[in-house]
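Re: that backbone. Tokens:
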């Protein structure tokens, strides 16, 4: 069995490669810079390059495609809205066009985002909750899903969409809340930073999963998911930013002060997902949130 992973050098990609190799796949990847990934043959390719995509798809002839590549920064999407749409929607079309042109029928997992729901009044979101995208990034994910299901209907491609909620783990860049706090705490421990962490709205409640659980979900969806369906990949549990910071601080002996910064304040965000659909396939979160945070702070201590 052969698997192709787009965006293979991102945060999730190397974890997915390991999971696929452990599941018996021969793994190939796409990366714009062609950077190496262990246990994976990486092709240098931009998903906006139609001809090169087709050449690689034809050569690899994958049994499963995991589409991780994309512009995934919400703030950046406001700066480059057109390019965000071109990458996330146009890139997906290019990939699926290449599959159709190559006359193969791999299972294709298109990774979307819980951002498509926007700010919801519902305590827990399910796959049929209303879509209210509030950023160019979220809008691009809605359009990406629509495009993907268009290929399912027209070409009968076995396409599955994962609406993934927040996921974190060791190695995630510090642009995200858990590694950002962890890195600051480690800098305080080393005397490289004043013992203060500035925060915004700490009451926001977010559904976090461990990336190592998430990649198991992706492989399961490619193998057992129903084509033409959407599945949440999430823990089903909400953790407040205050709780995240409290747990991380409890893992350090450093004396740390927490101060509010009005510049960091955002509206209260509640983003918790119902994962019952994917649990019916046999998936569940196995790594506890405290363990995830411990592994993240240990990662930064090792740097």
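Recovered sequence:
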């Amino acid at each position: 069995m052969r698997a192709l992973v787009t965006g293979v050098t991102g945060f999730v990609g190397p974890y997915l490669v390991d999971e696929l190799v452990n599941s018996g796949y021969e793994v190939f990847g796409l990366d714009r810079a062609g950077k190496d990934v262990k246990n994976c043959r990486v092709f240098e390719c931009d998903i906006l390059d139609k001809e090169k995509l087709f050449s690689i798809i034809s050569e690899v002839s994958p049994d499963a495609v995991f589409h991780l590549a994309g512009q995934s920064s919400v703030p950046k999407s406001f700066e480059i809205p057109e390019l965000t749409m071109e990458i996330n929607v146009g890139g997906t079309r290019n990939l699926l066009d290449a599959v159709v042109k190559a006359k193969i029928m791999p299972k294709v997992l298109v990774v979307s985002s819980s951002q498509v729901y926007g700010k919801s009044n519902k305590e827990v979101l399910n796959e049929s909750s209303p879509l209210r995208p509030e950023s160019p990034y979220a809008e691009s994910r809605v359009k990406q899903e629509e495009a993907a299901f268009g290929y399912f209907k027209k070409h009968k491609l076995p396409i599955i969409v994962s609406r993934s909620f927040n996921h974190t783990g060791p190695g995630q860049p510090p642009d995200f809340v858990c590694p950002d706090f962890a890195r600051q705490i480690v800098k305080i421990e080393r005397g490289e930073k004043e013992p203060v962490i500035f925060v915004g709205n700490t009451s926001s409640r977010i559904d976090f999963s461990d990336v190592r659980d998430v990649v198991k979900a992706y492989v399961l969806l490619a193998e057992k998911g129903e084509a033409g369906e959407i599945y949440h990949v999430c823990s089903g549990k909400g953790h407040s930013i205050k709780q995240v910071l409290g747990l991380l601080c409890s893992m350090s002996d450093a004396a740390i002060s927490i101060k509010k910064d009005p510049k960091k304040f955002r509206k209260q965000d509640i983003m918790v997902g119902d994962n019952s659909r994917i649990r019916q396939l046999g998936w569940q979160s196995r790594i506890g949130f405290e363990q995830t945070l411990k592994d993240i702070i240990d990662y930064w201590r090792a740097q």
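DSSP finds ten helices and 14 strands in the chain. The two ends are 36 Å apart (CA to CA).
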